[in-house]
Amino acid sequence: MSAAAERPARTAPPRPAEPRRSAAVRAGIPLLGLWALFLLAHVYACTIGWVMPALPMGDTVFVYEPWARQALSGGPIMGVTESWVYPQVALLPMLVAQGLSQLIHPLFPGTYAVGSASYVVAWSVLVTVLDAIGFAFLLRGVRARRSRVRRQAALVWIVALVALGPIALFRIDAVTVPLAVVAGLWLLSRPAVASALFTIGAWIKIWPGALLVTAVVLLRRRIRMILAAAIVTIVVVLTLVALGGAANLAGFLSQMSGRGLQIEAVGATPLLWLTQVGVTRIAYSHEILTFQLSGPGVDLVAAALTPLMVVGVVVVAGVALWKLRAGAPARRLLPATMLAMVALLIACNKVGSPQFQVWMLAPVLLWWLFDRPRALVPTVVLLVDYAVTQLVYPVVYDGLLAAQPGPIALLSIRNILVVVLCVLAIRAMVKTPVPRTPKRI
């Protein structure tokens, strides 16, 4: 036997054992920490409004509560016995908040001119619970491979709440956000359920219907989605007819078509600057409870926005279909197309209420989950948009109503950011990579 064979083989010295990192550490912020931040964000948004100018809870206490109270006390029922600016199911969360308000009224006995502090608290609790349900669905499967991405998306939601502030919670739009998030998460696995949730959301505030249209255009199981949406709509319509509301079924559509050009609308931005030279002026509409522009060119712009919206939606749907037929994955096209659709609804709307900005949150969260690398820039732009929106309303809103140039400049930046988000989304659609098919030899 050779000497080499007799020598024992050299082995590398054993490395000290590294402590195994837990799944929570690998995923980023622990679940408990995310939930704590989630609750803190809601507490902040619910309480900061009490000390901010312009009373950002105003619609909740001055409009929603009286509507709910009169419906429960035998008075007019908005959307049923009276034509209404909202789709009829929007009354349901207002009624739920009114019932909860009665339970907690002894704890919060304060009152306003036409409403109560207990209703504001009840609305806060209702929206927080609904958001918590959506948040829990977003964090489902956190032990899976995509755990880190889901937690990052949850963190985006938390930051968005803080950036947007009270307006993220104290409007009816807040009820539709968790519905849209859960529906989006279920689109690929439970398309019929997702479609039903989108349809319910659209009967509260129309914008989730744009997400449903996108899903029907891009996904294969569209028949199931159409049937689910039809069933929900039939149930709602039959219920309204049974309650005596047949005459007002489409009242929210006629109310929207009759609106003027609101000062915060994206299309109103150039005309708003003309207030500085006296060409246009700001006036309050008592019919729809909002501030609108009046003056030369206002009616023309208002009339052009709705057709422009329709054309924009058709173009975005056409681009999505073109990329889908070229072989682009529907999963990667879906969130960008949703964001483009929703941003178009905002950019081409005669109304530019600050709460409209929450419409873009669900598509961005889904984009983060489905295609994170391409979602980073739109997410940052959205969060900046939210921060500027909170500065406009409620921080400098009184100055905006007085047509001061500083607040108008801030609003202009916000509106430009909406257009930028729309452009980013469309650009992402066009640049969605198409897998190359192998050449045949």
Describe the structure.
This protein has 441 residues and is mainly alpha-helical. The protein has one domain. It has 19 helices and two strands. Strands 1-2 form a two-stranded antiparallel sheet. Helix 7 runs parallel beside helix 17, helix 10 runs antiparallel to helix 11 and helix 17 packs antiparallel against helix 19. The longest helix is centred in the C-terminal third of the chain and has 28 residues. It starts with a helix and ends in an 11-residue tail after the last helix. The N terminus is likely disordered.
Task: Throw out a few tags for this protein.
441 residues, mainly alpha, two-stranded antiparallel sheet, 19 helices, 2 strands, globular, disordered N terminus
State Rg: 25 Å
The overall pLDDT, averaged over residues, is 90
Strand order of the largest sheet: 1-2
Number of strands: 2
Oligomeric assembly: single chain
Query: What structural category characterises the helix and strand content?
Result: mainly alpha
User: For the report, how would you describe the main beta sheet?
Assistant: 2 strands, antiparallel
What percentage of residues falls in helices of 4 or more residues?
55-70%
Query: What's the tally of helices?
Result: 19
Question: How far do the termini sit from each other?
Answer: 56 Å
- Number of domains as seen in the coordinates: 1
Note the overall shape.
globular
Uncertain segments: 1-27
Q: SSE order in H/E notation?
A: HHHHHHHHHHHHHEEHHHHHH
Q: Which percent range describes the beta-strand content?
A: under 5%
